[in-house]
Structures are given as structure tokens and as C-alpha cells.
Amino acid sequence: xxxxxxxxxxAHAGETVTLRGWVVTTRSSGKIAFVVLRDxxxxxxxxxxxxxxxxxxxxxxxxxxxxxxxxxxxxxREEPRSPGGYEVxxxxxxxxxxxxxxxxxxxxxxxxxxxxxxxxxxxxRRQGAIARVRHEVEQAIRDYFYREGFTLVDTxxxxxxxxxxxxxxxxxxxxDLGKAYLAQTGQLYVEAAAAALGKVYCxxxxxxxxxSKTRRHLTExxxxxxxxxxxxxxxxxxxxxxxxxxxxxxxxDRRKEELKELERDTTPLERVTAPFPRISYSDAVTxxxxxxxxxxxxxxxxxxxxxxxxxxxxxxxxxxxxxxxxKAFYMKENPDDPRTVLNNDCLAPEGYGEIIGGSQREDDYDxxxxxxxxxxxxxxxxxxxxDLRRYGTFVHSGFGLGxxxxxxxxxxxxxxxxxxAFPRQIHRLYP
Length: 431
Ligand code: NSS
Description:
The chain is α+β, with helices and mostly antiparallel strands. It is built from 13 helices and 17 strands. It has helices spanning 55-62, 111-116, 118-121, 125-147, 187-197, 233-254, 256-261, 267-270, 281-290, 303-310, 365-374, 383-390, 403-411; strands at 2-3, 16-28, 32-38, 43-49, 69-78, 86-97, 151-152, 158-159, 171-173, 179-182, 199-207, 220-229, 278-280, 317-320, 343-348, 353-360, 396-402. Strands 7-11-12-17-16-15-14-13 form an eight-stranded mixed β-sheet, with helices on both faces. Helix 4 (125-147) crosses helix 6 (233-254). The chain binds 5'-O-[N-(L-asparaginyl)sulfamoyl]adenosine (NSS). The site of 5'-O-[N-(L-asparaginyl)sulfamoyl]adenosine has 22 residues, from strand 12, strand 16, strand 17 and helix 13. 5'-O-[N-(L-asparaginyl)sulfamoyl]adenosine binds next to strand 12, strand 16, strand 17 and helix 13.
């Protein structure tokens, strides 16, 4: 007798098979009983007829509770009325592990309760659908860069140089060498790798001690960061729109079932094709003021500003050339307006806000050193980074796309915390 997965039942119609999984629900009319089983690959209904099954499985059925793990043996039957198209007429039922008073019942639970039980919450259909969309997005990211000839370079998580800003660092003691920081970004390292390999990317967890409790912030999140030698800021935006369109199209193509499960209206996602509209930061401020925001030239766009501006467009929008004073030290000064830098954010529609931050990098040794010193950073820790400007400096650009923000947007989630299996937030380290 073969042990199969629920997703493979189609190939076993008429055969006797064994399935292993967890009980979702049971119901019984006294003579006929039903058990819905979930095994990660799908769900199927098992049917037991008191008349036809031996006594042991019938008795076992009576004791089944939600999330009991079982091995269920039976004959696979085509059943057009059931969701997967198949049913199993049960001939044997073996309990593997009992489940007493499973905390998550079919009734509604509050978010705090669910987050406290995240390890179990993952078993629901909705969370399964989100996990599979995330998986697809990660695979799409890797496939895109592989196809485009990028080399993957894994960058360190323990670092000696601050990657973004000192304000939200996690630091730890590092033997006799003082402080090590958990990487806020792999960018500085992929810049070095770009001079070796041309087109590179890193993709891994990044850390920020964000004091903000918003629906867009985690303290640990995954970021993919391509870096391309000889790309300027304009080419950088073209790469971003091609990349984002690819990911969204892939999710729409291969995760229809999951997006349906999430009740995601996919019409706005279908519009996500290159080119994306572009607006300069200065024009954005003017437009935002017309729309009622009190933002003044020189300050960063807040979450509400991003939402307001993105509403003006039917697909993601690039806002480019921000004021130097609100952006990181490594961004290249704009030769046409030195108050600004050659950077861009990419804002997702439907209130999801910034999913990408990118820029052309400062490639001039003296200017970069001045920015490092100007921000009170320890120039000694950046000696290697400055070397890239001493030995064959080059125009180069890159960006970082936040995986959880992207998944939250594609899935239409109200909060970023559902876009990762075990979210890390200012008030959450459990489970
Ligand atoms: O700070 S970024 O805007 N840019 C960088 O880190 C650059 N070093 C990237 C690069 O050019 N290689 O962050 C990039 C993206 C941002 O647009 C968000 O999508 C995401 O990373 N991000 C976050 N996601 C979740 N939680 C937090 N706290 C967070 N911070 C940034």
C-alpha cells in the first residue's frame, strides 16, 4: 500500500492509499462520518461508513479532535463536489499524536492571541497561502537574477561598519574588537563584489532596532540587494521596474489559488508593468502640498505622504532625488543640484508605501570621506569601503527590496507581521 500526499491523489484514483496529516474537522450522522485531513499539500475529506469499516477505525474516529495527527488508509474516489475533486473512503485510521484542547478554534481570535500562538497559527489555510506566496516571490527573485546573469554573493551579518545610520542598530560585544553590529544592509559588501563580478546581489536577513510600531516595520526582515557596475541612477530604476513586474507577474501566474484564498483583488496587480511613473522629490512635495499634506522641502516622506502620493498612480511610482540631509551617507551627490542625491524610492500602490530604496553610490573618494566624517561615522571602519574609490572607482548603483513589504502588498495583508513566519517586532520575541 502506498503512502501518498493529498496533492497526488489524482494519480491514485481507485487505489488504496495511506495519507498522513492533521485533522481539520470531523462530523458524523451516526451512520456516516466525515474527517477533513490536511497534510501541507492539500486537504481531503475521508468518509467512513459504520456498516463498512471495521470497529477499530470507527471507534478511533469518535475520539478524533482538531489537529490530531493520523494515518488514514482508504480508497481514492473521484468526487466532483469536493474541493480537490477526490474523496477517500476510509478503511483504516491510526492515531499518531493526540491533540488536547487545541487553542486555535474555528472561531475568531484577536491578533495578540494569534501572534502568541504563531507556531500553531501557521497551520491555517490563510497562513499557508501567505507562506506559499512568499516562497514563490523568493524563488522569482532568485530566478530573475539568475536569468539576468547576476552572481549571488552572501554578505556578513556581523559587521564592523554601520551600513545605514547609527540610530537603529543592534550591537553586540565582539571579543577584543569592540562592538559588532547586526547588518542593516549587505550593500557596502555587494559594492565591493560588484567591482569583482559586475552584476551581483545578496539576499538575506537584515536587522534594524526600529522603535516605530507601524504596520510596515519589523526589527528583522529580509532584503534582496542587487548592485550593478556602471549602472547610473536611471538604469537602476529601469532594473527595478523590470524586476518588480517580473515578481508580481510570477505570483499572479503561479499562485492563483493562494491569492483567491486570501481574497486578493488581483486587478491592481495586473497593472504592474514597466515603465513605472517617475516624479522628482521636489515635484512630489509640491503635489503633496496641493493634496493637503504639510510636508516641507527637506524632510523625508512619511508613511501618510507615501500613501497619498501613490494614490495618484495606478502602478508603483518612483520618487527620485531626495534631499541629501535625509538620506544615507553613501548616496551620490546630484551634480545638477547638490542639495539632493541620485537616489529613488519605489512606492507600492494601495497604501503599501515604500518597497524599495535605491541609489547611485558616491564614487568620489574625497566626497565620500567627507560624508562619512560629516555623519560622525568612524572613518577607520570604512577604510576598505573607501578603497573601492581608490582602486578603479566606477559609477555603480543598486537597491534594496524589502521582502515582507512586497509579500504584504502582493497578498493584500493589513500588516507586515503576517508576511514572515515568525515576526520580530519591538514588543515581540516569542515564539
Ligand atoms: O533602508 S532602505 O531604504 N535601503 C537600504 O537599506 C539600502 N542599503 C538598499 C540598497 O541600496 N542596497 O531599505 C530598503 C527596503 C525598504 O524600501 C523596505 O522595503 C525595507 O527595505 N525595509 C524594511 N522592511 C521591514 N521592516 C523594516 N524595519 C524595514 N526597513 C527597511
